[in-house]
Amino acid sequence: QDDELKYTLKRLVEGLGATREAARPGFSLALAQVLQAFEEIPICSVLEQIKEKHNLEKVKKKLVRNAAFGNFFGVMALFQSGRLVKDQQALLGSIQLLQQLANHQAHLRDLPRKTLIDIVSEIPESVFEEVLFGILQSDLASAFTSPENLHLLLVGIRKFPTVLKPKKLKKLFGSPTVVNEENIPRLVELLQSAAKSEKKDKKLPSVAFDLLQVSLKENAFELFWEEGVENGLLKEKSGPSSYMCYRLLGSALPLLSLDQLQMVLKGKVMQHYGEHVVTTQLPDRFKFAPEMEGYIEEFLSSCDDSERQLTVMIGFSTLTNQGNPVFSSSSRVVRHLQPVVLQQYVGWLKDMFLRPDFDCCLDFCSNRQKQNQENANVAQHKVARLRKWIIHRLANIIESTVKKEESLVMDISRFCFFHAFFEAKKKTSQINEANVLPAEPLDEQAHSVAENYFFGLLQTLNTMTVLGDTAKAAALREKHIHGVTADGKLWIFLLVEYANKLLSSEHVKAVKPFTKEQRDAWERTLQSVKKLQKENKSDSAKVVAFQQLLLLMAIHLFKNQSETMDVLSDLLNCTERAFSKESKKKKTDNTEPGWVEVMVEILLSLLAQPSLLIRRISKSVFVRICPNLTKRGLQLILDVLDPYQEQNEESAVVVMEESDKKIKSAQDTDEEGNEDSSDEGDSESDSGDEEKNEEVDDDFRSQLMNVLQAGNALV
Predict the structure, then answer these.
(1) Where is the composition biased (Acidic residues) (predicted)?
(2) What is the distance of C-alpha 74 from the center of its chain?
(3) In a designed cystine with 454, which of 239, 420, 444, 533 is the match (CB 3.0 to 4.6 A)?
(4) Could you give the 3-state DSSP secondary structure of residue 325?
(5) What is the 3-state secondary structure (H, E, C) of 170-200?
(6) What CA–CA distance (Å, rounded) separates 483 from 185?
(7) Is 50 exceeded by the pLDDT of residue 658?
(8) pTM recorded for the entire structure
(9) What whole-number distance in Å separates Cα of residue 443 and Cα of residue 608?
(10) Structure confidence at residue 596 (pLDDT)
(11) Where are the domains positioned within the chain?
(12) What angle do CA 617, 621, 626 make, to 5 degrees?
């Protein structure tokens, strides 16, 4: 067995310097595993065997590269075995060998120095002081000659503060601190060198991060940031240096105090980062925004300090390009905010919407924008861009997975609704949204933008799971009920109630005032909804269907008054017939269509609308009225689904498989708020035939419900 072990060691040591580059790490790993498994093998003897086999002085010139790698991978194997730091003699020999290998930069580049730093970071302080400090003293003294030597010093200062005290540092290189005015120029040069040598890695070089940490330890962060980063690295205007600055900014967030965060977030690096995001053209150039968002997310998820969380959120939200924040309005980092911070952030967003304060913003313009801007409209343009971003940010907070209270959701919904469809005539404490008047009145475009995002928000509310930690809320979630509060009320119903309060107030006015006919329809809708809420629970599916559709059409009165009036009028008449006592009796006169047929025609017309919300609610209503479907109602569906029907081609609905692109387009239409299509799908297609109002048999109705619930034909 001893012979086999010796042979194994011999073959593995030889393989460390193999000509095939891919084989060397394999031999190194295998050797590490053997040394780990057989602790009786002396580490020193293996080190001597490596040095003898791959002797750099005796090897032929053409094999120097292989020998250099043989030595390097040999030390790596000893280190990875976990036994090197336990054997002081082998540790000393390995460090000396790595120092010798550092002279072969043509072959090994900076690998020996990096490995030396890794080993130093793993050893105990006593071993560093007693064994290694003596042989590393020259490297530490020449810390300002290369990024690797500087990194070694920084690791030593962080790991062994009692050994590398200020007095000892002064003896080594003449100053008791690393970060000072005298050393800044040289530190900048070393950071630039590190940035260029590691630019392909697309990460912050370790030496830069360690220097950041040491500057904080020496209470010299402000000097390092202002002179070293902003007036040093950033001024070079090269890609690697700029990216190093951005990564230093992101990496520094968890380490800084509140005052330091405020300084950094209003500094030159932030502005430079904003300009980079706005001007960089993909796909040829690397855009840093996703990486920065990762830094922000990491900070927010690990930070327990609410003030620092809020400072970072506001800091990135006030980095603006002509009023439009560079920070994405749909960023998911808000999910890590503490509830109190989320509440404060929403309050700040609302306040900035009403009273835009560009003095607190770090605003900039690109060169092209400076050339194209018209001085007269710049201020209004900036306000419009900021308000658009804020409304989308608020709507997106409701959509995000952040833990939020029902009161916050309602607060945001009311705010968006008010500024989409109303404006305050004078301040009033009776309505929160009218308690503060906008410093700059909203124009037609601002109302339109708010309107567009409100309907996207309404779609989110309709599909949102029940919020809250109560038993009732948990029970509703188990039943997969969406679009309601914890007490079972529809979100859309609460918004209609709020809208009614606004219509009744003398302190506010609608952007598009209702005519008498439209106001009557509104009042009639509210009365119908209240009656439906009192209906027998045995017919709950039908009640919910009518209630949801009535409320949706009521909200749409504020957007598309003339088109909505026709549908709403038919829907109100249909509701009255569906829930009147006569409708429950068997009819003898079949010339007039029943309420189910009228409802089917309404729903078919709504399914042709571009609004995703209207189509989804129409689909859910279809499912709920299936138990009441008649043969004539079914025929109406089949008629519009028949692509070969020549009669009434203009009103026919052609069903086809939509591509992902078209579906996304429909979603965008609803979110971005393009005007709803005015195509009507409810034109009469009566051929004059009289059919008996026969009930569809139960088996067929059950099959039809399954098909409709699948939803493939209705989307």
Answers:
(1) 668-698
(2) 45
(3) 420
(4) strand
(5) HHHHCCCCCCCCCCHHHHHHHHHHHHHHCHH
(6) 61
(7) no
(8) 0.81
(9) 31
(10) 80
(11) 1-122, 405-512, 514-710
(12) 155
Q: How far apart are CA 113 and CA 40, in angstroms?
A: 30
Asked if 302 contacts 312 with a C-beta cutoff of 8 angstroms, the reply is no
Token pair belonging to 698:
């139960």
Alpha helices, DSSP H only, in 81-145? Answer: 88-101, 105-108, 111-120, 125-127, 133-141
Residues ≥6 apart with Cβ < 8 Å to 432: 411, 414
pLDDT at 541 > cutoff 50: yes
Q: What is the pLDDT of residues 353-397, one digit of tens each?
A: 999 999 999 998 877 777 676 655 788 889 999 999 999 999 999
Q: Determine contact, residues 508/590, Cβ cutoff 8 Å.
A: no
- Are 447 and 419 spatial neighbours (Cβ–Cβ below 8 Å)? yes
pLDDT tens figures, 17-33: 888 888 999 999 999 99
Spatial CB neighbours of 62, under 8 Å, sequence gap ≥ 6 = none
Neighbours of 493 (CB within 10 A): 20
Per the rule left: phi > 0, alpha: psi between -120 and 50, beta: everything else, 282 is beta
- 707 has a pLDDT exceeding 70: no
Task: Reduce the DSSP state of residue 7 to 3 states and report it.
Answer: helix
Let me know how many helices (H) and strands (E) the chain has, helices first.
34, 5
Phi and psi at 424, nearest 5°, equal -80, 135
Tell me if 112 sits within 8 A of 98, measured CB to CB. yes
Give residue-wise pLDDT tens across range 589-613. Answer: 556 677 888 888 888 888 888 888 8
Token digits of residue 662: 């078209």
The 3-state DSSP class for residue 348 equals helix
**DSSP state letter for 436:** S
For the stretch 470-510, pLDDT in tens is: 898 899 889 888 888 998 889 999 999 999 999 999 999 99
